[in-house]
């Protein structure tokens, strides 16, 4: 971890959170996301308190009591099935992206990145829609959910813009409680139905929702889990080109020079043709894929899988005008979503929720995404090389215990008043100590009593 400079008044966490909520227009989003309460508490007040709890590294029950409402109110807001958390993240991200557009080079290819991550819940068997899900890293089934996420990237900044907490529709894999509602007329019912559908179908829905809410993008990036002719075709109908890693399956065929080949057969054909291998990749060709009678072109790029001997990777793009090197470079940007998962879990406790209601867990993920957006926004505004982790700890240091600060100011003020009775050596020690205090405390000491 790099050394973090002491925070000053201009970068106080409370001021930064306030600036962020005003920038994304959080105060105007309440009605748009169906936030309805009989009390005077607005959505901004509750979410700001939750974000502060993340920076203080405490759960909501253990965090400081809010001033204008109770902790129970905050919990009820998370569990409110009427709130459209997905729309909230989309609208907030669209507003944030619009503020960043002036500093984004017009030559940048704006892309959406899709991936999922394991949300483990090993000790919560009564949690709603809890299921046995397959962990591709550990190669076994674990208890929890799949956190499907859609992010936005311009090559520098990554922002989570939509999500879905995926369960299962197989009764044998269902462990937790059944959905509390299945009424498709309500947001809560549609959210639960979405959790039990095919992940690729939900992915297209999330992307369409983000585009409809004003998130700009030209490409969609995804790994082999989401890659299929169906996915390529559906995204093309939304006006988006795709770049993904192709499965080396014998069940999917592509037409090349009037003959059908699977990926391995096509690679063998290219090798046999004695086409010279390129410097940055092996081979590249344009093939024709099909989905339900619709034929469309794909550019396939065969690249060396470094460290894996003679193995190779296959990338595909629906934009056949892209050069193979550009496709490889664009696909490399997909790694940003992996860094988001790591940072969100390590610093923002993405997978540490103990909430048992499905709506509450979706609200928890939404607050996590907003908190990460704040950190990414700050990282983009700063000209230094601080990471998301650096900024998180900086925010964390900027939330001191107010009682301790007041006590320290009182103590130092008393010592300064008694300065004339002390020796010069002790006075010098006190002056040096004061010079090392945070700016906010130094300013408080300089104020007249």
UniProtKB/TrEMBL annotation:
Residues 77-257 form the Transposase IS701-like DDE domain. Pfam families: DDE_5. This is Transposase. It comes from Lactobacillus xujianguonis.
């Amino acid at each position: 971890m790099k050394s973090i400079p002491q925070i000053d008044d201009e970068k106080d966490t409370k001021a930064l959170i306030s600036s962020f909520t005003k920038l994304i227009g959080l105060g105007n989003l309440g009605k748009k996301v169906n936030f309805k309460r009989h009390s005077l508490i607005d959505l901004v007040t509750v979410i700001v308190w939750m974000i502060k709890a993340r920076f203080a590294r405490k759960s909501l029950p253990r965090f400081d009591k809010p001033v204008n409402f109770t902790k129970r109110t905050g919990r009820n807001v998370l569990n409110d099935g009427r709130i459209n958390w997905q729309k909230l993240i989309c609208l907030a991200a669209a507003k944030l992206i619009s503020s960043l557009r002036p500093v984004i080079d017009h030559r940048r290819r704006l892309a959406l990145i899709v991936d999922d991550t394991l949300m483990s819940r090993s000790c919560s068997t009564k949690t709603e829609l809890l299921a046995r899900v397959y962990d591709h890293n550990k190669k076994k089934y674990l208890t929890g959910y799949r956190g499907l996420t859609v992010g936005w990237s311009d090559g520098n900044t990554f922002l989570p813009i939509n999500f879905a907490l995926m369960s299962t529709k197989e009764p044998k894999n269902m462990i937790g409680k059944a959905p509390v509602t299945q009424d498709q007329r309500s947001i809560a019912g549609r959210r639960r139905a979405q959790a039990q559908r095919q992940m690729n179908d939900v992915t297209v829905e999330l992307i369409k929702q983000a585009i409809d809410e004003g998130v700009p993008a030209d490409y969609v990036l995804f790994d082999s889990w989401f890659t299929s002719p169906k996915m390529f075709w559906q995204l093309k109908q939304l006006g988006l080109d795709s770049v993904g890693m192709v499965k080396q399956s014998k069940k999917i065929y592509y037409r090349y020079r009037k003959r059908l080949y699977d990926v391995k057969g096509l690679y063998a054909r290219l090798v046999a043709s004695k086409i010279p291998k390129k410097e940055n990749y092996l081979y590249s060709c344009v093939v024709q894929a099909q989905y339900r009678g619709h034929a469309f072109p794909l550019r396939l790029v065969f690249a060396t899988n470094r460290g894996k001997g003679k193995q190779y990777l296959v990338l595909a793009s629906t934009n056949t005008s892209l050069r193979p090197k550009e496709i490889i470079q664009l696909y490399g940007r997909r790694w940003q979503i992996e860094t988001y998962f790591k940072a969100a879990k390590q610093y923002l406790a993405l997978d540490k929720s103990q909430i048992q209601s499905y709506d509450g867990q979706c609200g928890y993920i939404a607050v996590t995404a907003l908190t990460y957006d704040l950190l990414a926004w700050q990282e983009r505004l700063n000209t230094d090389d601080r990471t998301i982790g650096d900024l998180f700890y900086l925010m964390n240091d900027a939330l001191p215990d107010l009682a301790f600060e007041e006590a320290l100011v009182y103590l130092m003020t008393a010592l300064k008043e008694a300065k004339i009775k002390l020796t010069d050596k002790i006075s010098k020690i006190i002056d040096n100590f004061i010079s090392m205090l945070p700016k906010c405390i130094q300013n408080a000491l300089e104020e007249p009593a």
